[in-house]
């Protein structure tokens, strides 16, 4: 998602400063840090700084937008993906839904296998004590490799779809709770 955001919404900026929550599983991990180095090595940025909130810090400005979304979602009738898009877009002006895929199975945001890509390219960021660190800086002054190009991308990941067992469960147990207009989209007869 970050690659999509920077590719679609970036302004060609050379220096970037990210402010992130301090979640080891999402923001402070080997793949995220490797991706920051990838952007420098490919010449997409000259300097990237990543600042993470201290452990235990729970107030982060995007949480405000999620709170507004949660409040609106509780008061809305949602039966399918299009309804979720509507609820997100109506919840607050900063909230804009970005679908990764459509209900018909079309991939809107390309998802790449960054983990395997970095293993193959031997970008490994094993930072000892990473959970204690809050600021990271990546710079083209320290990371140079002319063989890297922005067109060097990992393999595309395709959504696997639901297993037959899950399709049956949705059809048998959940379908009756879906609005009539959404049943065939959300809980169709298993294939």
Characteristics:
191 residues; three-stranded mixed beta sheet; 3 strands
Biggest sheet details: 3 strands, mixed
**Major sheet strand order:** 1-2-3
Helix content: 25-40%
Rg, Å, rounded: 20 Å
Number of helical segments with 4 or more residues: 7
Low-confidence stretches: none
Structural class: alpha+beta
List the secondary-structure elements in sequence, H or E. Answer: HEHEHHHEHH
Q: Per the principal axes of the C-alpha atoms, what is the gross shape? A: globular
Alpha-carbon distance between the termini? 30 Å
Strand fraction equals: 5-15%
- Overall mean pLDDT stands at 86
Overall strand count: 3
Question: How would you describe what is shown here?
Answer:
The chain is an alpha+beta fold and 191 residues long. Helices cover 35% and strands 9% of the residues. It is built from seven helices and three strands. It has helices spanning 2-9, 30-41, 61-74, 81-91, 114-120, 164-174, 183-186, and strands at residues 15-20, 47-52, 135-139. Strands 1-2-3 form a three-stranded mixed sheet, with helices on one face. Strand 1 (15-20), helix 2 (30-41) and strand 2 form a beta-alpha-beta unit. It is globular.
């Amino acid at each position: 998602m970050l690659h999509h955001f920077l590719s679609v919404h970036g302004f060609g900026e050379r220096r970037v400063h990210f402010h992130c929550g301090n979640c080891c599983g999402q923001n402070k991990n080997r793949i995220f840090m490797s991706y920051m180095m990838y952007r420098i090595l490919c010449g997409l940025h000259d300097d990237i700084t990543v600042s993470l909130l201290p452990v235990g810090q729970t107030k982060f400005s995007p949480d405000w937008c999620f709170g507004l979304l949660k409040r609106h979602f509780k008061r809305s009738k949602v039966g399918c993906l299009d309804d979720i898009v509507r609820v997100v877009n109506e919840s607050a002006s900063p909230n804009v839904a970005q679908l990764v895929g459509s209900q018909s199975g079309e991939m809107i945001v390309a998802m790449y296998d960054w983990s395997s890509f970095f293993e193959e390219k031997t970008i490994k960021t094993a930072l000892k004590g990473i959970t204690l660190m809050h600021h990271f800086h990546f710079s083209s002054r320290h990371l140079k490799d002319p063989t890297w190009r922005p067109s060097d991308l990992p393999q595309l990941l395709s959504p696997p779809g639901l297993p037959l067992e899950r399709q049956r469960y949705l059809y048998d147990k959940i379908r009756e709770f879906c609005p009539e207009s959404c049943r065939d989209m959300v809980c169709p007869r298993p294939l």
